[in-house]
């Protein structure tokens, strides 16, 4: 027993020493990083411009171009080097609206809370409302020839629940423990789509395109009390952003208003609506751009530490938490690093490269375009890498943030066990900021997947959930007011430290084995 | 000790017997009432017409007239007698809108979430936005001559909090115990208005009326995530509903949008807004109407049990919880009583009289008009009773409901201790429906105060709070979807039983002492 105990003690000691010995933490740098990141944060100032002034930032829209110019100028003014745009595409056409209103004219007048789906064309008119209660192709036939010039309702009534539980949450011990104990992730099985349902949906949308109703309305699939979740218009085939594609005007209505309209139809009460959407298709060359900016390295300057977030957003608010928050934190991390380098005189060994991606909302398109240019050859028409380019070997890590405004509570390893002791050591100094959970688990849906797919260590941080999925993610309420400045400052501080520590260590970060030509994890949201 | 114990036991027994003996509960009638009220409820059907079809019901508006006609017809169809309108007034002019939209045109385009305040006149135009940072009359002078054709912001930035606590609540033991233990209420002291602030506000509004800005914007004083609280327009002197009064167009903007506009001004970023409000003043005779309907009594038919709720609402939703809920419950209680009388053959001894009031939102005007016609002479230009009319003696009680969609958890006695044992006996059979708390306390702000002020026992029920004050009361989200059918059915059932028991007992309900010419409790909301 005693010998065993001794052995155990030795092992523990060895373990800690190993971490301490191998994984240096530069406390002096961290002190300066904290000063600029926590005490002199500019996060809310950056976020304010990015959202209130340069929001929303729909990919392909003129406002995204303005936001891009603003960000480039900011980064140059701060002292970032090699600030430039890298194009990717073709994306398809852009879209912006210059007027939108919807009104109900019968039984009484009321302004309808609704939003156009992105890429809906201009439309103006008044019409009756028809509820298409159809779930088979036979059902569809009944409506043939009857939809022209009408407003079409496609959704059933959704019951609204009051807010009996808080919308906004922070992690607690239980939720963090779940992440800490997450097993090595296994690839998710592909969804088994219901082909019958898919064929029905295609038939439905073909019919819509033939019949030319004035507008198709659905209700926000979640949200209530004035919060409406909206994304892009759909088509029977192809994508609504495809050049010259004819798109049926589509709108998402606040659930309370959608339900009111549908209930009145079911009562036999006539409902009339008026819509006026003025929208233009933009960006005829169909090419989009990521923003790239660097802090040059020194002795290992050919090796690169990347950090970034997607800069684009949906269109009904200002893209504050999705993903003004992530873009703000990454720009602020760059600013903190510039200030820290200036103050400390310590220059990064590897080059630090900030990337603000676009086209993320349509399927990680900007980061995938970047990967195509820099890291891998892909099978034609896919994002399945077939061979790796030399640059792939030079990227030590990519750090991403895209889960709202909540502060960092730790990091997801994406199944890369070998980085666990390194990240634990780097998180240790931020224990007082509540960031100390390391999860073997994956998190999906955003641009770190692009890196993971080509064998570059790509990570997202564990964030406080806040009201992200309940209220702001892809909603008309994704506005500046739902950002938390303290949380953004904390995240920028920790990420700046992670980036600098990744740049300063002797080795690049350990990689997972990468099996070439293996299908990538599916991206998009 | 033993004798004392015996005495105590006797007293307790006497007490219970007294209640049981004096205060009959008709269980057979209650069984039938429950069948019609709980198992065969029509509450949601009534509420649906009252809100989705005939909402909103702003006093003076044509839609209120339509709603009134619908309610009259329903009540007649069900078999209510003496269904008629009783006019009160003059109220002032009515108002309705036939188009409203607001857009932001710079720095980018976005549709603004906003609502006109009721009685705002038509206005159409595009203009710059000015923040009036003024708190003294000297501050005002700086803006003189600079406001014409502009949009004026009057409010500061309001910080938005996420929903960390539930919005909707039901009572728990603790909150009910607080009500059960409430002391006999004492009159509230009159608010000590800050006369300086008042004089500043008057000067501010006079300046607005002189300068003729395009519109005055404030932010919703509470609410967020798309919920906007809006009521009526104000003036420097007089009321915006006064005939021929010139009103400056006024709008309430969702806090996130208001803050965005103001933050951009503070950043030096130009903001341009466009507004188009088409509104008409209606109701040139300025007279309004309460809806009255009766179920005739038998041997005591000259005595009356009244029950009612206000039927009018504000204008940005459909007046579902304020006070479609109360009006629905009272109409449904009438329907339950008609069915119960038909099925049981038991006719009420006293006459049952339903009243649906209007003008409540402007200061209990409809019920006060009714009191003026039936119950008291008031001092000129006031609602201070100076002498009582004979009818006042004939009203046994008035039951009111106006605190949203929540079910009944008990009743407020309004300081009338003598009714406590009676109400306790009547609530006892509804213990399984969670309605058993009797509070000596007051509840204010609505039409039972009118009765209390003229010495007629007037009561409101204790209701579940639900999301009433957090989300729906005077907001754009006061829609049908925020009603709870089960709660409305429970309330109608219990109130039907209370009304019937009040009609059947030998005596009228005991009254509090009434001191004539005592100023009435202040009403309005």
UniProtKB/TrEMBL annotation, chains A, B:
SUPFAM superfamilies: Zn-dependent exopeptidases (SSF53187). One of its GO terms (biological process) is proteolysis. One of its GO terms (molecular function) is metallodipeptidase activity. Residues 290-499 form the Peptidase M28 domain. Pfam families: Peptidase_M28. Coiled coil: none annotated. InterPro entries: CPQ, Peptidase_M28. Keywords: Carboxypeptidase, Endoplasmic reticulum, Glycoprotein, Golgi apparatus, Hydrolase, Lysosome, Metal-binding, Metalloprotease, Protease, Secreted, Signal, Zinc, Zymogen. It comes from the Bacteria. Its main location: endoplasmic reticulum. GO terms for cellular component: extracellular region; lysosome. Residues 1-21 form the signal peptide. Gene3D superfamilies: Zn peptidases (3.40.630.10). It is found in: Endoplasmic reticulum; Golgi apparatus; Lysosome; Secreted. Homodimer. The monomeric form is inactive while the homodimer is active. This is Carboxypeptidase Q. It comes from Neolewinella agarilytica.
């Amino acid at each position: 027993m005693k010998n065993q105990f001794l052995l155990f003690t030795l092992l523990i000691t060895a373990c800690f020493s190993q971490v301490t010995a191998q994984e240096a933490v530069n406390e002096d740098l961290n002190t300066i990083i904290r000063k600029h990141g926590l005490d002199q944060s500019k996060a809310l100032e950056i976020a304010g411009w990015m959202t209130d002034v340069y929001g929303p930032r729909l990919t392909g829209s003129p406002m995204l171009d303005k936001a891009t110019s603003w960000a480039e100028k900011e980064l140059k003014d701060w002292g970032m080097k090699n600030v430039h745009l890298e194009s990717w595409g073709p994306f398809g056409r852009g879209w912006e609206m210059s007027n939108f209103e919807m009104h109900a004219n019968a039984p009484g007048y009321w302004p309808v809370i609704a939003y156009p789906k992105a890429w809906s064309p201009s439309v103006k008119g008044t019409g009756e409302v028809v509820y298409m209660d159809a779930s088979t192709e036979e059902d569809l036939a009944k409506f043939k020839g009857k939809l022209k010039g009408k407003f079409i309702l496609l959704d059933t009534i959704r019951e609204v629940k009051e807010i009996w539980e808080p919308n906004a949450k922070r992690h607690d011990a239980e939720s963090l423990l779940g992440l800490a104990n997450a097993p090595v992730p296994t690839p998710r099985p592909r969804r088994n789509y219901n082909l019958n349902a898919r064929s029905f949906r295609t038939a439905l949308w073909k019919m819509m395109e033939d019949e030319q109703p004035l507008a198709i309305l659905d209700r926000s699939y979640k949200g209530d009390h004035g919060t409406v979740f909206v994304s892009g218009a759909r088509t029977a085939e192809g994508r609504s952003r495809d050049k010259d594609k004819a798109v049926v005007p589509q709108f998402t209505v606040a659930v309370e208003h959608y339900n009111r309209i549908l209930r009145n139809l079911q009562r036999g009460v006539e409902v009339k609506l008026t819509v006026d959407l003025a929208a233009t298709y933009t960006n005829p060359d169909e090419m989009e751009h990521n923003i790239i900016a660097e802090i040059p390295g020194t002795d290992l300057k050919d090796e690169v530490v990347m950090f970034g977030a997607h800069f684009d957003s949906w269109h009904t608010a200002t893209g504050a938490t999705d993903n003004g928050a992530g873009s703000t934190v990454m720009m602020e991390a760059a600013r903190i690093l510039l200030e820290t380098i200036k103050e400390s005189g310590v220059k990064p060994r590897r080059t630090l490269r900030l990337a603000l991606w676009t086209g993320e909302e349509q399927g990680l398109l900007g980061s995938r375009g970047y990967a195509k240019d820099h890291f891998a050859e892909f099978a034609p028409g896919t994002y399945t890498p077939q061979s790796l380019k030399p640059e792939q070997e030079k990227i030590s890590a990519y750090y991403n943030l895209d889960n709202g405004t909540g502060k960092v509570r730790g990091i997801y390893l994406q199944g890369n066990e070998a980085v666990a002791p390194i990240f634990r050591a780097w998180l240790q100094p931020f224990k007082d900021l509540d960031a100390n959970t390391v999860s073997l688990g994956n998190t999906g849906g955003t641009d770190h997947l692009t890196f993971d797919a080509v064998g570059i260590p790509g990570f997202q941080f564990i964030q406080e959930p806040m009201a992200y999925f309940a209220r702001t993610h892809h909603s008309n309420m994704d506005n500046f007011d739902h950002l938390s400045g303290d949380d953004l400052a904390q995240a920028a501080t920790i990420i700046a430290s992670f980036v600098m520590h990744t740049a300063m260590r002797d080795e690049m970060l350990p990689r997972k084995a990468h099996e070439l030509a293996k299908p990538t994890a599916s991206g998009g949201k």
